[in-house]
Amino acid sequence: MDHLSERTWVYAGIAVMLLAAFLRLYDLALVPLHHDEGVNANFLVRLVRSGEYQYDPSNYHGPTLYYFTAIIGWIIRGLFGEEAQNAYGLKTVTIRTVTALFGLGTVGLALRMRRRLGNFGALSAAALLAVSPGAVYLSRYYIHETLFVFFTISTVVAFSRYFEGRHPVYLILAAISLALLFATKETAFISVGVLAIALVITLAYRWWWRQFERRSQPKKVGEEPVQRLAMETLIWAFVAVAVFVAVYVLFYSSFFKNYPKGLYDSLKTFEFWTRTGTQHHVHPAQTYLRWLFLQETPILLSAITGAGLVVLRPRNSLALFCALWGFGVLAAYTLVPYKTPWLTLNFIVPLSLIGGYAFNEFYQSGPGKPFLAIGLLVLALSLSGYKSIDLNFFNYDNDNPKYVYVYAHTRRELLELVHEIDKVAKRSSEGGRLGITIVAPDYWPLPWYFRDYGRVGYFGRMTPTSEPIIIAAAGQKAEIERMFGDRHRQVKSGFNLEGSYALRPGVELLLYVRADLAEAGGNS
After folding, report:
1. pLDDT (tens digit per residue) in 312-330
2. Dist CA 84 CA 82 (whole Å)
């Protein structure tokens, strides 16, 4: 028996969504862009300003992130002009709002599973996702993963609704979601493979369990209705395939601006991915489980409980499917040597769903259990909520191993370096025409922060220059001072005695400003 009234469920659902929105949307510019965010933003700038984008299969993911974000810039330009587009359409807050909204949408889709997971189960799953440290942190990141998991869960929800009522609109929505999943990231084939295996095992296990308990007998259906149903399903399946292909072609061909090369490259990417999956970011097999235990303990423990319950008593097909999906995709990514913290989002979503099922089963297990289930959920949310706030608003660039999502992240003092250069630009009266020479080999995500400066040279090595701003690596200090010491002065950071600006762990930058401009600001 479900003890929640409709009004209580609606109010609770709104509260969960508001909490999820606050954690994802508050102060989105607080955290400096990660290296990967800077690369993604660079593609976006080119797309928004010139309309040019070509998918590169060698080292980058699919086009959906850029096109969904570019819509904002194009709308602003259409309404207010190009200056407004640059001022508002290409801002850190703007681009991260896109991923934050997709993250919020994932929480909303968890609520949509109430008919299969139960009212309390769907609320619990959505609440676990709402405050998950990783789900929040990665929703505030301008990378593909948040869109990827949104399209994964939307595919699952759409197919689930189609199988419930055979309404073709859900089959078409599933096809669109599936196409967008493949157009977001090449690892879609892993997720789709796991989903397919999970579906087959769910159907087989449910059939075996019914036979074992002899609970039901198959209903006899007349020959004509079966034939008619099969024909209708076949027709709509063809339509769904056509829709999938159309969406896939549109995105990878850059809306036919890069046709057919973009389609060829979208298939060629798997060749590159199989090499990268064994060459970079290699970690031991137990890494994901350790990361989940460190930062997502409530989700992991509740998911293990839910999986045990549904395997022993497979009364809920969707819950069984979610258990197989969650632990299946965890196993699949565990087998791949390449491991990064943002990939954990692929497990966090289905594990939250099966965790919600566990809370729902406990909630409905007997008198007095609802209050105990609510108490346990509040405890779980409090623990995750504390970790989420600590990670996302205080220790977002702390490379302590316990903050597993902080993976070679840009340090906050980089924003001080950018601020110093902006001040020099104002003092010089040159503004965006101020020249900047970057000789440091490692400089991402600086291209994003210097997107409005017209004269920026990214050399990555020592080079002669007459520009008023020079950014170098700490190891280049002696050479910089020998070549430019008579004309430039170091503007020191207040974060350390050496005066360098930490880009990320192990990478320190030095800022040199032409003497007349440095002296005007009182720096030396």
Report:
1. 999 899 999 999 999 999 9
2. 5
